[in-house]
Specification:
single chain; 129 residues; alpha/beta; 2,3-Dihydroxybiphenyl 1,2-Dioxygenase, domain 1; globular; dioxygenase activity; oxidoreductase; Glyoxalase/Bleomycin resistance protein/Dioxygenase superfamily protein; dioxygenase; Glyas_Bleomycin-R_OHBP_Dase
Length: 129
């Protein structure tokens, strides 16, 4: 069978997390520094644009107010930031308590975690080296 190289995964467009109270979650993510996607508002839904430039479109973190399924509402999102330690201090100054101080991981990133109001784990990281 001939391998198809023209149909490859190119990028991640969006991740959607379910939340129990959309207003509370939007305020939390805005406090973290996420920028809400401009446009029409849809009840129970919010979208935040991450990154992007003239060459690449942004990725989106979406929040959907909905009941949690049989596995609960846990999810993890890893977001790269320009300076892990400075971002950590910024969140602490805003009253957000990270799970631990920035650490160097064996997989080559410096990172720390924050839990959102619904228990989703947000990892803020930067590759080392």
């Amino acid at each position: 069978m001939r391998e198809r190289r023209s149909a490859q995964i190119e990028s991640l467009s969006a991740v959607t997390l379910t939340v129990s109270e959309i207003g509370r979650s939007v305020r939390f993510y805005e406090t973290l520094g996420f920028e809400r996607k401009p446009g029409d508002s849809v009840p129970g839904f919010a979208s935040f644009a991450l990154g992007g430039d003239q060459r690449t479109p942004p990725a989106y973190l979406n929040l959907l107010e909905a009941p949690h399924g049989p596995f609960g509402g846990w999810g993890r999102v890893i977001v790269y930031v320009s300076d892990v330690d400075a971002f950590y201090e910024r969140l602490r100054a805003a009253g957000i308590a990270p799970a631990f101080a920035p650490s160097d991981a064996p997989w080559g990133e410096r990172y720390f975690h924050v839990l959102d109001p619904d228990g989703h784990e947000l990892s803020f990281a930067k590759p080392r080296g």
